[in-house]
Amino acid sequence: MALSGETAFITSLRAIAAHPAARGLTDDCAVLEFGGEALVLTHDMLVEGVHFLPDQDPADVAWKLVATNISDLASKGAEPVGVLLGYVLGKDDARLLEGLSEALNAYNVPLLGGDTVGGSGPQAMGLTAIGRATHRPVPSRSGAKAGNALWITGAVGAAMIGLEALRAGTGDSSAYRRPQARLSEGIALAPQVTAMMDVSDGLLLDAMRMADASGITFAIDSTAVPIAAPEVRRNEALRWGDDYELLFTLPSGTAPAVPATRIGQALARQNGPLLLDGKRLEAGDSPGFLHR
Amino acid sequence: MALSGETAFITSLRAIAAHPAARGLTDDCAVLEFGGEALVLTHDMLVEGVHFLPDQDPADVAWKLVATNISDLASKGAEPVGVLLGYVLGKDDARLLEGLSEALNAYNVPLLGGDTVGGSGPQAMGLTAIGRATHRPVPSRSGAKAGNALWITGAVGAAMIGLEALRAGTGDSSAYRRPQARLSEGIALAPQVTAMMDVSDGLLLDAMRMADASGITFAIDSTAVPIAAPEVRRNEALRWGDDYELLFTLPSGTAPAVPATRIGQALARQNGPLLLDGKRLEAGDSPGFLHR
Fold first, then answer.
1. Region at A61 (left for phi over 0; alpha for psi -120 to 50; beta for the rest)
2. Which candidate, A138, A276, B24, B187, has a CA 20 to 30 Å from the CA of B283?
3. Which of B159, B288, B150, B163 lies closest to B228 in space, CA to CA?
4. How does strand A78-88 pair with strand A111-117?
5. Across the interface, which of B42, B81, B113 has its CB nearest the CB of A43?
6. Band of residue A283 on the pLDDT scale cut at 50, 70, 90
7. Candidates B50, B113, B116; nearest CB to A117
8. Which tens digit of pLDDT belongs to each residue from B69-82?
9. ipTM of the complex
10. DSSP3 helix / strand / coil % (chain A, rounded to 5)
11. How far apart (Å, rounded) are the C-alpha atoms in residues A224 and A151?
């Protein structure tokens, strides 16, 4: 869950980040005009004990660092042009490099630079991903309009099942260990969507963020959401994160350019950002993970 | 001093970073063609206990994080267009934000985005600085030619004296706490220089790096180097870092566009990168700080 210090810090940061390219620090990426094109920029960190466990395979950690940043670019329809790595040395740096190399090859993105430092405490690493917008305007979280349909690529809950397999030491854990960024899907969708983001912290929580940014309310039909988990775990799957599917809105009647599922629609703003099967989430019914 | 693990890791990283924009990870910045302009990119981290002390003023730490990254842009003649912050929360985040805001205002550079995460261990933070080249080709470390003159802006040793003042609790510590990036100087020099870098790890060590990158040997006259310290400490000042002056080479006979001092010249490559007052540094005579 979010620390109150974190929330306060981000609020203060937003006051500093007044440049329009920062998008109020509420979008997946910054979007900066540069040389007649749009530069799409994101930086995500992973910290040992917060985002990964000390005994996790460093190659998987590196993969996730790359995939989560590339996923942010995907959600803006950007093609990656390079990454910079900030890295505090850890226990098995050679293994981390293997995963880094695999992920960079998988997304065909070059390592351009960064910084490597020694450290004795919990390991931390950050990646800056730099992309080129393939469509203007660059999709935002704030463009959903009342009457738009809400769509999602793929299914949610796969990472939840994958983490359980990893913990159990049996079964397929790849969805958790090696998430896939929906890069080609994001580029195909960018010209169509009115709003788009990636689902990193849970479908319901991220849908609420898009609704708040757009000033509308989403009505989501829980049974319409494809899940990659047993049916009895549907409610959990709607709240779990780490699946990195794309959540987007289209004008009513528009068919998406890639396989996706319609899971709801945008309504004029009501009392709250989300109606799930016609009802507001009750207090205490967490919509997802504020921190992972 | 450099950890052997760090050296090995960076060597392995270089094998991955084959894209020409990465400049072999041996320059101050990556330089990427984008939209008909040159994007200049750098990312530096600061880690508690390695680069700053737990009791240091967080506002000074933030200032240094910004100034060191902007200094890298300055050394390539780039004007900053934005920064992304990766930040692990610490003990006094409000004070850190004050320093961050002061530094961003001083260099007139917008905060565009980043990531904030909780953490319980030593604090770590990284900054990505994004710049626009003001002159093509973008200066590198590798362009010094035999016969070129070697120049430096300002003086070295000020940060050394500043750190001592800070530790003593008396005297002017600002050169250490609030280093200045030579941004306007870098932009003015970019069209003139054959090679340029900033001096972060000590004049002698950084000069050796430029010599190695350029395949020449520098002959430096130690008495010609302006120092901001008592004369008895000249040898230390030549080896201390954190001053962030610009070190550059010009064709013989060219006068620099900004105040600077000629401290030596480039010779055809000899046995080693550096002659100090005509002599190679002896083994055991450290040229500077490999890690700070």
1. alpha
2. B24
3. B159
4. parallel
5. B113
6. low
7. B50
8. 999 999 999 999 99
9. 0.93
10. 30, 30, 40
11. 10
For the stretch A64-111, pLDDT in tens is 999 999 999 999 999 999 999 999 998 899 999 999 999 999 999 999
- pLDDT (0 to 100) of residue B186: 98
Residues 6+ apart with CB under 8 A from B252: B147, B148, B149, B265
Banded model confidence at residue A2, pLDDT cuts 50, 70, 90 = very low
Residue B2 has pLDDT above 50, yes or no: no
B207 burial (CB, 10 Å; 0-12 / 13-18 / 19+) is: buried
Q: Do B16 and A132 touch (CB under 8 A)?
A: no
Whole-angstrom Cα distance, residue A175 to residue A198? 16
- Calculate mean pLDDT across residues A147-153: 98
- Interchain contact, B41 vs A85, CB within 8 Å: no
Q: Which domains does chain A show, CATH number per domain?
A: 4-133 (3.30.1330.10), 149-280 (3.90.650.10)
Residue B92 CB coordination number (10 Å): 12
Question: At residue A130, does pLDDT exceed 90?
Answer: yes
Exposure on the CB side of residue B108, measured as CA atoms within 13 A? 3
CB spacing of A111 vs B22 below 8 angstroms: yes
Q: What gap in Å lies between CA A5 and CA A7, rounded to an integer? A: 5
